[in-house]
Design brief:
Length: 552
Amino acid sequence: MEELLIVSSLPSQLSARVRAAAGVDPELRAATRPEFGHFQSNVALRLAKTEGKPPRQVAAEVLARLEVDDLCEPVEIAGPGFLNFRLRSSVLAAYVGEQLADPRLGVEQAEHPQKVVIDYPSPNVAKQMHVGHLRTSIIGDCFNRVLTAVGHDVLPQNHLGDWGTQFGQLVEQILVERVDASALTLDEVEDLYKRAAGHFKTDPDFADRARLRVVSLQSGDEETLRIWRQLVEVSLAGHNVTYARLGLKINDEHLAGESIYNAELATVATELKDRGVAIMDAGALCVFVPGFNAPMIIRKRDGGFGYDATDLAALRHRVRDLHADRLIYVVDVRQGDHFAQVFAVSRMAGWLPDDVEAQHVGYGMVLGSDGKPYKTRDGKAMHLSTLLDMAEEVAAPPIALAAIKYADLSNGLNKDYVFDVDRMVQTTGNTGPYLQYAHARMSQVLARAAAEGVMPASAEVTVLDAPEEQALALALSGYGEVVADVAATLQPHRLCTYLYDLAGTLSVFYERCPVLRSEGAVRDSRLVLCRAARSVLAAGLDLLGIEALDRM
């Protein structure tokens, strides 16, 4: 069977037609009242100011050039010159049928598919993921799902913190305690890390040995590397449990820890120096970037490299070797200046061509009810697993996770938000569980229809007379457009708003338009509307990383 693809949403089709007639963006808005139709535009009022004509005259001239008879009922000029549009019920009905037949539910595929590399969730070896990793995980995973849905080739890169001076302390402490690192759990490794840090501060001899152990690690000493690998394996096992619990579309194939760039750091420094981008300053190799107060230090005075050099090497690898067209870094908003400088230096070096887009998507902090960063009672960063446990004490795991993810994504990403699990798990109001409930409600209606033998074989809507039916069909037609918008803007709260509004429209439809108690073509059409609404809710929830439940 040939795959059916919807060209574009009804609002976007109408907007394009009006733009062609008016010459400018019509800025269509949903009508404020049913008697005004489905959409309104003030384009004539805006054009009247530049053309020096009465707005109603301009509206009439636009209307004379406008070709929308196949989409709309006769367009009305209202008030001082507003244009009111009412889509034909036959057009709305046909769209719902086409949407259900389209495997993508009207989500258009990118005209120029890109290779998109997304940097997330990037925890550290020898440490459990903490509450700070919640947002990068949820946001990065949503971007992965949305960009894949519109046809891009998405490659997550888990920039694991698996290299650095802390491993000298860890390996040395393991040798002191004579423990088998491979037999430890991640909890035990984290406790060992704390003991090593304390030992380093109080025992100068241990501190000296730990520093030498870093040199051994960097120079490839077999015993040191063996223990380091064991620490990495234990950490990965622990992190993978959390990834699975969060439902992330990420696995070991996406690992790209800091360690893999270690061999490239000297080359990065040499290339920057040879190209005249980096210069020596007070014994350190630096890049002075216009607009930044401090230089980027590529190589320290002692010859060591920091994470600036590692991030440059990672970007260079992603563009040169992974052939990325678009780079997205989902990292704490406080790292904005750092990434702006990394991108600037990479462009100066020629590693980031003009046709490759690089974006830092910063996110705010998770706050407690006191409005302060969410921590344990003793002031330490709370483990992410503990936070999930707390939510699951209030609701079943899929509902708890829906509550957490929706609360995160429905806010502006760069804003802080309060983690209030009691509010987040409610099945009323603007919450993830409310959307799950809307989906489950439709699933039960359709299950009853199937059990009663009244489920229509056809996916066509033939009757669409009630305003609530038309409103639901119109809401469904906007799904593809909002997904494309999120893919372009990386603002998932717009998808959350759309799904919440859709669920509200669906609720009004269900309350005012009897489904199973109606008969004949009316019942068949309403069941198809229910099928379409359930499908769009399920698909939209999946893009947010939320499970669509059939029962609650």
